[in-house]
Amino acid sequence: MSSIKRALTLAIAASMVGTASSWVLVTGAEALEVAPGLHRAERSAVDKAAAEARLSGRPVELTSEHTETDTVRVNPDGTLTRSMAAEPVRARTVEGWKDIDLDLVVRDGRLESKVSAAPVSFSSGGRGALVELVAGSNDALVVDWPDALPSPVVDGATARYIDVFAGVDLLMTATPSGYSHVLEVKTPEAARQRELKEIPMGVTSEGSGSLKVRQGGFTLSDKFGREVLSSPDSLMWDSSGTDESRATPALQTQAVEQQPAEAAKQAPVEVKATGPDEITLVPDQEMLRSPDTEFPVYIDPPVSMAFNQAGRAMTFRQHPSLTSWNWSSETSQGGQGVGYQNFDGVSTKRLFWQFNLGTKLAGATVSSATFMAKEVWAASCAKKEINLYRTHAISSKTNWNNQPSAISLQDSKTVSFGREDCPADQAGDRVLNFNVKTAMQTVADKGTTTVTFQLRADENDPVAWKRFAPRPNDDGEVLSVSYSFPPGPPANLKLQNPTKTCSTGAQRPVIGNDAPDLVATTSDRDAGQGQKVKMSFELRKGLGGAGGTLLGSFTTTLVDPRNGKTYMYPQADVAARLPYSGGKIVSGTYSWRPKAIDDTGLATLGPWCEFTVDSTHPGTPEVSWSSEATWIYQGAAVPVTFGPGSSNDVVKYAYSWNAPAMPTSSGQQLVIANDLKCSTTTKKCTLPLALPKAGFSVLRVWSVDAAGNPTTAPATIPLESAGLVATAAYTFNDVSEPAAAGNNSVVDGQDLYLWGPVPRFRGVFQPEPQDEQAQEPRLEYALEFAQGGVGWTDNPMVGTADSFTVAAEVDPVNPVGAPDAELVSSSTMISQVAGAGYSYRLGVDTGCVRPDATTHPCYVFAVRNTAGQTFTARSVLTATDEPGMVHLAGVYRAADNDIALFVDGELAAEVELSGTLVQPTSTSDDLTLVGTVETGAGIYQYFAGYLDEVEAWTGAAGEAQAFLIAGRLRDFRSYSRPEVATP
């Protein structure tokens, strides 16, 4: 496996190690949050660290929240302290987090740091890539040296390749965020050789990124255009610059060859693209050949890497176009300068630090924040002011001509640290702690993802010149912020008992005389650190805010808000605060608002909620039905209208049969706003109601207002059936094949059996328009008879010894081959067997006589008496095979000894009888036939067509009742005869 592939694999594997709350998938210049939120194991780790901090009374590292640059500690009070470095201080490995260790070791034949956040490897000699650097999860950089390299001499993080050109060494150094390399030109003779006029280097990118060369260096961007790797401007300098007569030694001098002294002779190195995968360095030849140049001379070709938008920049007025991104280590005089000096040449410099915050502090309340800067050298023991500003963002392109403006001064220190001849009380650890709480609170409030600070001294006073280390301590922590998150906004606000949602204005809920519970929930990002939350409720008369009168407040105890914890202002306490009059809550509008408060005192207000108290009960509702309507019998529905009467706040009705208490079942309630049977304008509801039983019943109707108050006195209506008692009813709405008993509606245990050409359930019925509005079609099923098919019941549908009524919906058709509109054969839909014949039949006869003596088919109801006489009531209406259901009802009135035929609810004919109707004589003929009739010679008059809604009653239906019986089916007059059978 190549070192780049292995590095990519390790980078991705490392990104999956540990329990950070947001996985950093890119180990180079960009961090990508791919799994926000704490998993169960992570939450357990947080809880454990928080518990340890509380017990020990000291901060405990919260490793699950660490990043490459950030160290997080949970404090005993549950707050967090996040300490941030401007470059990586640890790396995520397959074994978990490890501190950065840049010392080079050999792995897979290449030199790599022991632990690095930026996977970089150097050549171990010979041909091949000088540098391989993974700059993200999908991008990598490869740098090639033009010739074979000698085996390097390794010293810590630096590999020295001796005599890559005659008298020129190449120094490769791993840095926390990438690498740097420097050519050390040892002698004037080496400086004059041809190889230093132009130095070609292969530079390629692997992955989806793109490489762009600029005047002094280059940048590598990922596929989204984000800069993942960049280089500062290439620079060369000589070994001059330290004037001991004017510069007092630093407290601790550290000689570092890879940085120029203040007064060193410096010159830019041109970088140009000379091929698709090649750049060429062009050192300044005048400087190399000048007799004033002091050797060694150092040539710094580009490359160091920015990490995750965090980094450092130095701007240099005397070199205004020079970029110095992630200036590393100290200069040969110790540290990097701030301010103005004129004793080592002339320098005016400013230093910047930038930190990537992501969303880690968004919404937090900052309790303290400190920026730490270590002063390692001062021009004098005289105390001089150093200022810290918050500025706009920096980048790898920042220089004196392109530096961000200051936003605000954060803090100032007047000190003189860093000189060995200064008073001891000014030495200490030489770390200046600047208060940046204001800046960090602003960042938290705005959710800013980066913050940048600048150190600046008096740029007119050389005595104010100071030098600072890139990091103040071994941990590399520069910025420390202590913070806590306020509780989340109170949520799920509602009233309880009765349950109502939180609303205001016209949508506010209305309640009755029972005080409610006030309920809310909340959350807290610090709950995992052991912080608890309480809820404070405020209750007012009138609208919320200054417009209302405070009635009282209630505060719960502190509890863990997780797992949906509910906070409640209990009903009893609310009732104790509400005003009463005459034993009732004073009607009117009330408001309430919760506030979540954690145990550090941070609070978040919830919204105002309102409710109206209405203690007045509505009056008795109005109940009415059509003047033509008559309560017929058990099961027959009558359209009944409920009205609000004198009340104007009715929102629903409830009704019951023969029960004095108001029902709570939704099936016996009508909510005006939600029910299509109701009008929101008139607040009236019309619904079909049927007597629940034969004989006497009582209908009661209640009005209910928005507060849930029912009418004090329901409308009470006694009703009695008109003497009809249903004995059989077949709707044929079972869609299965009726091959055996039990597949149809059953009344009093009667089953309908079918035989012969199989009648099938079929038919789609289209309701007629209601109030000029089309109704949705619905499936209605009927029996389809072909001539020869019959049905029968085990017992008569109705007894014929006294008054009775039989009815059916029919649509007769001609047999195949008889296309005439008028029916060509007589048929029977329903008949009762009685001896060697029938007692009644309901059907069609073809020989009916018109007033003009012509004959035509008509609908008939016929009966036979014991003397063998037949009496027939015939309709004037001609029976045709045109599509359309017709309702037929035949009535036998024993008291009047006559019969009547009703067609579609209208009286068609009446016929007086003589004698007594013939009755069934034995069990064998105790049958009602469907689709045929019995004669002494057998069964005949087979029915062809559609049959539905076969019904029978004891008792004789009058004109009003017959009209209502037919009217129940009137909505489904129009239908489509199916062309294929419906299974």
TrEMBL record:
InterPro entries: ConA-like_dom_sf (IPR013320), LamG-like (IPR006558). Residues 1-22 form the signal peptide. Residues 234-271 are annotated as: Disordered. The keyword Signal applies. Pfam families: Laminin_G_3 (PF13385). Residues 802-960 form the LamG-like jellyroll fold domain. Keywords: Disulfide bond, Signal. Residues 254-271 have a biased composition (Low complexity). This is LamG domain-containing protein. It comes from Nocardioides jishulii.
